[in-house]
Write a structure and sequence with these properties.
Helix content: 40-55%
Number of helices: 8
Radius of gyration: 18 Å
Oligomer: single chain
Order of helices and strands: EHEHEHEHEHEHHHE
Largest sheet: 7 strands, parallel
Length: 252
């Protein structure tokens, strides 16, 4: 692994050779696909996931430097994980977390508070506890949403988190420099999580998106992973929010 330099002539190359990427939420969906693309670009990975069985399957495929099975919303466990890393890493990507939808008329205030606080606390905990492990010029990369930008019934908590994450990302980019901090805002992505949320409505949603999105296809994990790898490789990017939703936010 080589540290980045402020001299353009000695910056990281266009791939991830000899770099190490920690992927939190790596056992399925966007996290797993990002880990695949990192390995395809010559990088090494450390995989973190909540489900030990799925994490083991991912490890058999990707041959990581290490794995850790825990819930990333447990900030004490996050702290211990980063303390236990044997050496520096180049990038940390966090895809862990699920959207929270609940209309006000049936609002469970304790659940809403927990969803909001856990998401922001997890982001802050990653920033706080990884800062001594990530090389200069490396990346902290978080996943947010474009869907939460549009008000709607049941979207109060989701919209609040969506609005908070870009501001948090920009502030962390200043405080953690020269470590870079960026946010990917995704729309609907065809993942196992989406399938679990939509159930038997999944196929109808796919057809709707194919018919209405400007790109005329459904966004898949590989699309988000490709953007993630680009952000890792382009060391001029920090403090930004980068949308990948197939134009979903452009349509009513």
């Amino acid at each position: 692994m080589t540290a980045a330099s402020s001299d353009p002539g000695t910056r990281r190359g266009p791939d991830l050779a000899d770099q190490t990427v920690v992927v939190i939420g790596a056992s399925a969906g966007i996290g797993l696909e990002t880990a695949r693309q990192v390995r395809a670009r010559g990088g090494q990975v450390v995989l973190v996931g909540r489900n030990p069985e799925r994490l083991q399957r991912a490890a058999l495929e990707l041959h990581p430097l290490g794995t850790a099975a825990f819930d990333a919303t447990d900030t004490d466990r996050l702290k211990q994980f980063f303390q236990d890393l044997p050496g520096p890493v180049d990038h940390v990507m966090v895809t862990a977390g699920a959207p929270f939808y609940m209309p006000l008329e049936s609002m469970d205030l304790a659940a809403a508070r927990r969803a909001f606080e856990e998401r922001l606390a997890m982001t802050l905990a990653v920033a706080l506890h990884s800062r001594d492990k990530v090389r200069a010029g490396g990346t902290l990369l978080f996943i947010g949403s474009t869907g939460g930008r549009r008000p709607g019934t049941g979207m109060a908590v989701m919209s609040a988190v969506t609005a908070a994450l870009p501001a948090l990302t920009a502030n962390l980019a200043l405080e953690l420099a020269p470590i870079r901090v960026n946010l990917i805002a995704a729309g609907f992505v065809d993942t196992p999580l989406s399938a679990s949320l939509l159930g038997d409505q999944l196929d109808a949603r796919r057809e709707e998106l194919r018919a209405t999105l400007p790109v005329r296809r459904v966004v898949v994990p590989a699309d988000v992973a490709a953007l993630a790898v680009h952000i890792m490789c382009n060391d001029a990017l920090t403090g930004g929010t980068y949308d990948v939703d197939g134009g979903q936010q452009l349509i009513s």
